[in-house]
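Marked as duplicate of an earlier ticket. Keeping the data here for the record.
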Amino acid sequence: MHAPPFRYPHGYSYRRWQTRMILPAIFLSSAYLFQDYAMIGVGPPPVGYYWVRYGPDLLLVDRRTRMVVDVIYGAFY
């Protein structure tokens, strides 16, 4: 999906997230939560999870533990 440019918070740059890694809390703010999941063909996140945009990737994150449970690499370009 073509998307607007992504701005990393100060001190962050791209890294390739993998499942079971813990995402920093700053990425659970509204600036990074991705609500237009239907536009790229993924379903809504399960209860207790968020879709989070991280640069070109889309991460499914447990909102309580901040653990990454799924990654779609290159979802945005």
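See parent ticket for discussion. The longest strand covers residues 49-54.
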